[in-house]
């Protein structure tokens, strides 16, 4: 065999091998495809089974939800039905009640109609009787006029006068009985409230005037204060604004000024100069300026102490400074700052006792005389200035109204305002709180006796107890016991209307019957 034959056989062998290989590969691919198809059918079958199972479970859950919702709906419907039945039952009961009331009203209306007819008949009978009585009275009046010689108008006037007198006497008895009952109930409570308030708020008051005395360590110091040709004393007077009086009083100088703050400034300056020992015009100016700064700080501290003591909150800083100035202001010898604190505590305590807001009363009582801190420098009454300051620095309307009415310049706008006025009177009128000028005191006593003596039947009138009591002696033949009680009431009312006085005035009417005979 030649080479070509071998090559041909080799090619045929290769081709045969390739065909066999391809056949084997094809069979292997067909087997894999079959296996894949079987696996796919298995997966699809499992998926169908799981889907059917999920579908059955979903259907079961949906059915259970439907059953639950249906049960809830049925329960809700049953509750609604129960409420509807309850409403129907109530409506039925109301209809029955209304029916019964309607029947009762119809019966009452029927009875009323019958009573109305009877009253109408009686009214006709009364009109006939009235006509007969009027005719009889007319004839009697004519007969009385003929017998007495008085006209009907004159007799009527006499009768009215007599009835008025009897009614007054009867009213006096009734008033006296009511007053006694009211006193029994009110005196104890009022005494307790006022006594507790005064005891808890009483303050010491020092009578101050328009002068201050500065004690000196020696008589030589007086000459040093005067200085060469009086230059030191002139420098002091110019720097402080007070008059310095050097008289024969040993080891003392007198400071005179209507402004208490300037007097205090001068007093402290002189004391500091005496302690320092260097007294000349330049040093005086430095000391006065230093004391002035210290005094302003002290004034602020006094205001803050008053506010802290009373526990009043949110007061404007300027009002606190003005409160501090009241420490150096007096009214009839009574320290105004102490007076305002006392009024505040009294008013707050009374407000608390009768169920009002004690904070409003406390605040209004503390600020009621705030105008006195500036009334020497500004035109207007201290009440007007106090109202302006309270409004300016944001106080409430109730506080402003209480300040405006505490001297009755305006009508009382609130109960708190009445308490402020009452507390102000209590603080000013209590014994030892204020001093009064002798001339004013005598005029008040004379006016008191004059008012008491102005009534008919008064024999004598005496003002007692520094004008806190007036005793009236009446003529027993002209004034009866009941008339004496009326006279006491009328006198008290006239004193209240015509006289200004602190506190209260007791009016006592004395009627004495004396029978005198002589044995001869």
Structural description of this entry:
The protein has helices at residues 3-148, 152-201, 219-226, 231-240, 260-276, 281-310, 317-325, 336-353, 358-367, 382-392, 397-405, 415-429, 438-453, 481-498; strands spanning 211-215, 243-245, 252-256, 330-331, 334-335, 458-464, 469-474, 506-511. The model is unreliable at 200-208 (pLDDT under 50). The strands form three sheets. A three-stranded antiparallel beta sheet has the order 1-3-2, with helices on one face. The chain has a three-stranded mixed beta sheet with strand order 6-7-8, with helices on one face. The protein is mainly alpha-helical and 520 residues long. It folds into five domains: 1-136; 150-201; 206-296, K Homology domain, type 1 (Ribosomal Protein S8, Chain: A, domain 1); 311-435, Hypothetical protein af1432 (Orthogonal Bundle), CATH 1.10.3210.10; 438-511, GMP Synthetase, Chain A, domain 3 (2-Layer Sandwich). Helix 2 packs across helix 14 (481-498), helix 4 runs parallel beside helix 6 and helix 8 (336-353) packs antiparallel against helix 9. It is 71% helix and 7% strand. It starts with a helix and ends in a 9-residue tail after the last strand.
């Amino acid at each position: 065999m030649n080479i070509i034959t071998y090559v041909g056989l080799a090619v045929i062998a290769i081709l045969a091998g390739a065909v066999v290989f391809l056949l084997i590969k094809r069979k292997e691919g067909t087997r894999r495809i079959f296996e894949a198809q079987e696996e796919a059918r298995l997966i699809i079958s499992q998926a169908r089974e799981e889907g059917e199972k999920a579908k059955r479970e979903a259907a079961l859950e949906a059915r259970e939800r439907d059953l639950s919702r249906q049960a809830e709906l049925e329960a809700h419907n049953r509750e609604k039905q129960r409420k509807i039945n309850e409403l129907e039952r109530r409506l039925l009961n109301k209809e029955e009640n209304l029916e019964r009331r309607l029947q009762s009203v119809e019966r009452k209306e029927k009875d009323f109609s019958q009573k109305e007819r009877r009253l109408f008949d009686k009214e006709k009978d009364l009109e006939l009787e009235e006509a007969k009585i009027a005719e009889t009275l007319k004839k009697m009046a004519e007969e009385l006029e003929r017998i007495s010689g008085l006209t009907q108008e004159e007799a009527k006037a006499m009768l009215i006068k007599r009835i008025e007198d009897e009614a007054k006497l009867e009213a006096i008895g009734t008033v006296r009985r009511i007053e006694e009952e009211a006193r029994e109930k009110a005196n104890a409570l009022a005494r307790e409230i006022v006594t507790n308030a005064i005891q808890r708020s009483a303050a010491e008051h020092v009578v101050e005037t328009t002068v201050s005395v500065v004690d000196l360590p020696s008589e030589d110091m007086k000459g040093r204060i005067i200085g060469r040709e009086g230059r030191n004393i002139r420098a002091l007077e110019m720097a402080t604004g007070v008059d310095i009086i050097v008289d024969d009083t040993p080891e003392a100088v007198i400071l005179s000024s209507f402004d208490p703050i300037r007097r205090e400034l001068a007093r402290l300056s002189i004391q500091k100069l005496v302690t320092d020992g260097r007294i000349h015009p330049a040093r005086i100016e430095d000391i006065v300026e230093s004391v002035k700064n210290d005094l302003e700080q002290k004034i602020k501290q006094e205001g803050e102490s008053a506010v802290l003591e009373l526990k009043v909150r949110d007061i404007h800083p300027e009002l606190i400074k003005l409160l501090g100035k009241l420490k150096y202001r007096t009214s009839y010898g009574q320290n105004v700052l102490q007076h305002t604190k006392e009024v505040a505590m009294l008013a707050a305590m009374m407000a608390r006792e009768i169920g009002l807001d004690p904070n409003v009363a406390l605040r209004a009582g503390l600020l009621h005389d705030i105008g006195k801190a500036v009334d020497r420098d500004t035109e207007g009454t201290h009440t007007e200035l106090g109202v302006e300051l309270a409004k300016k620095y944001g106080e409430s309307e109730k506080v402003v109204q209480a300040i405006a009415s505490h001297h009755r310049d305006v009508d009382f706008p609130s109960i708190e305002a009445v308490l402020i006025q009452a507390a102000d009177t209590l603080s000013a009128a209590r014994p030892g709180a204020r001093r009064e000028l002798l001339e004013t005191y005598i005029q008040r006593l004379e006016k008191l006796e004059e008012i008491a003596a102005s009534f008919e039947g008064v024999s004598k009138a005496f003002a007692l107890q520094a004008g806190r009591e007036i005793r009236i002696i009446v003529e027993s033949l002209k004034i009866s016991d009941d008339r004496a009680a009326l006279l006491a009431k009328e006198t008290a009312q006239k004193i209240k209307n015509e006289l200004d006085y602190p506190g209260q005035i007791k009016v006592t009417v004395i009627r004495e019957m004396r029978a005198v005979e002589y044995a001869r």
